[in-house]
Amino acid sequence: MVLSVPMKAGNLAIPQAPNSITPDWLTQALQHAGVLEAARVVAVDVYPIAAGSGFVGQTARLRIEYDKQEAGAPATAFAKLSSADLAVRQQLRRVGLYETETGFYRDIAALPDFPLQTPRPYLSLYDEGTGECLLLLEDLGHAEFGDNLCGCSPPDAQLVVRHLGFLHAHYWEASILKQLPWLRSLGDEAEARIGLYRTMLPRFEQRCVEGLMPAMRKFAQRFAELMPRYVAQLSSKPQTLTHGDFRADNFAFATTHDGRSVTVFDWQVARRAPGPRDLAYFLSGSLPVEQRRATEESLLKVYHETLLADGVGGYTIKDLRQDVQSGLAAPLTTWVIAGGMLDFSSQRGADLFKQICARLGAMLEDYQFSAYLDGLASWDIGASRKPSLVQHEVYSAGYDPMVLQGLARRSAARDAAFFVPHLKSDMQVLDCGCGPGGISVTLASFVPQGRVVGIDVEESQLEIGRREAQQRGTGNVEFQHASVYALPFADETFDAVLAHAVLYHLAEPMQALRELWRILKPGGVIGLRDTDGDGDVYYPLHEDVDRFWNLTLRVIEHNGGDTRFGRKQRRLLREAGFQNVVVSASSDVFGTAEQAAAFSRYFGSIFLNQHRALILKERWATEEELVVMQHALLEWGSHQDAFYARCRCEAVGWK
């Protein structure tokens, strides 16, 4: 079970339903949350929220009585629980709804610079095994709640769109987003979401027939065929933190002497994605059709000007209009899945479903979504899978001779020890990101009747590998120039795939995993070995050396990588379709005086000099601070007790 802050240590059971919340349970929960000390809850009245408000779970307002008064003890609270329907709960686990919202309140909402108002979280609980969760939040009952059926008034629409711009600008291409294991990108969840969409489509189509909505049915059918292309296309656009369900039902307004404010809740489908998807979602669902047509230009202008004022550069109003057009796929996907999965039998639920489909259908027509789908159908998906390595995914270690010497010393027996036991003598093996070929050439000895193909995006390294194979007389290994995003091999070509220290450098690792799945034969094995920066250890400790290690992580993240990728291997392999995933960990150790000294010289001179201009440009450190860190690092490397161990997480899975 994952206990999310502000929860303190404890082991509270998750209630199965709101009426299972007892005074004793609530006393412990509020104590763990740090808002209750001496007082105890003696009574709790549970008021379930009317059906049609919380479609994916159970929601209730709690009125609380205590045995004594205590400052800060809430008189009311709001409880959100996972669905009581096991089938629904299991479906929603596939797209991470409960895990995402508990993660959001733990890691994002409480940050002092978070740009939106959200309900104060007292407690969040999530059980990874069962998918059950509970959120105990500040009660916003005093506020004025938005209502999708009525829609947002023009002034409130301006307010929420401006705040949406604040959110997106604050996290525009922010590296922190890739450090949150619960925050998925569109690529991360593509397989599960596409499968769920296509599964739910027949039921949605039936509801469209019943509701006389032929336009929605037409759009939904066509988009089902093009979803993989859509995900690939949007993965190349600027990413930010998106709400994912940005509509009037999820807003609470208040008017004070300081003016009008808005609180945004329901963060279950927060994603790392292009921001205009949220704007398209809001415009298509929260405004009556004629109001939207009359005000959308001014709303687009407010959003765009907010982005520019908050530091987003190189993004034109034309870019925004195009992204809103493609962003209409977000509400289309959501309402197809919701229409096929959820219960809209209440009067409000039925009215809401029909109204949103009518509004969305009108906007799809107005924005010529059919023309967008035509363009998507003819779009060159192969070209999109080739990343701009210069701009987005730089190999941060560089290609200095000192680096290449270290890479050339790698061997299958040492660096792929977790993977080698799964090889058979006649296998066809692909080694991704092979560099100068140390692992590829030595892997060949484990498949004497088979073949090893090493690939890399840097041709100069491949030449080193070819020379090494020739010198060793190894004939069953070859080297090819290729990107892991777009492999030049037919489907089901290889029996095994190794990606050693590759995926954590990639901005879209799920895209690469889907490509590796494609070229693997059924029953084939994949092996990953990647770093996780939080697992590194060194000695003796030094404040300025700490600062330098943190700088190296920032450089890698800036260049498109994810320095905490290792811990996510099991989830990503599972979501890419691999089964029976086994994870392990080991370390690359610099334990002799010579190794520690060489390690410090590399980082203190070569690495730092390669990235000095970037560090200074981004103002992560001054020139004077870099000099201090450099001296500290070199001094550490010459210390008689110097030691460094770099954590490597490992995983194997099967197709």
Question: How would you describe this structure to a colleague?
Answer:
It is a single chain. This protein has 655 residues and is of the alpha+beta class. It contains 22 helices and 19 strands. Strands 12, 13, 14, 15, 16, 17, 18 and 19 form an eight-stranded mixed β-sheet that branches. Strands 1-5-6-4-3-2 form a six-stranded antiparallel β-sheet. A three-stranded antiparallel β-sheet has the order 7-9-10, covered by helices on one side. Helix 4 (154-170) runs parallel beside helix 8 (289-309).
**Helicity level, as a percent range?**
40-55%
Structural class: alpha+beta
Unreliable segments (pLDDT under 50, ≥5 consecutive)?
1-9, 383-392
User: Helix segment count?
Assistant: 22
What is the multimeric organization of the chains shown? single chain
Record the SSE blueprint.
Elements lengths: L1 E3 L18 H10 L8 E8 L8 E10 L9 E7 L3 H9 L2 H11 L13 E6 L6 E6 L5 E2 L8 H17 L19 H21 L3 H21 L5 E3 L8 E6 L2 E6 L6 E3 L2 H10 L3 H21 L7 H11 L1 H13 L5 H20 L2 H10 L2 H4 L16 H8 L3 H4 L12 E5 L5 H6 L7 E6 L2 H14 L4 E5 L12 E7 L8 H11 E12 L5 E3 L3 H16 L10 H7 L3 E12 L2 H25 L5 H15 L5 E12 L1
Parallel strand pairs: 12-13, 12-15, 13-14, 15-16
Antiparallel strand pairs: 1-5, 2-3, 3-4, 4-6, 5-6, 7-9, 8-11, 9-10, 16-19, 17-19, 18-19
Describe this structure in a few short sentences.
The chain is α+β, with helices and mostly antiparallel strands and 655 residues long. 43% of the residues lie in helices and 19% in strands. The two termini are 28 Å apart.
Key features of this structure:
655 residues; alpha+beta; eight-stranded mixed beta sheet; 19% strand; globular; disordered N terminus
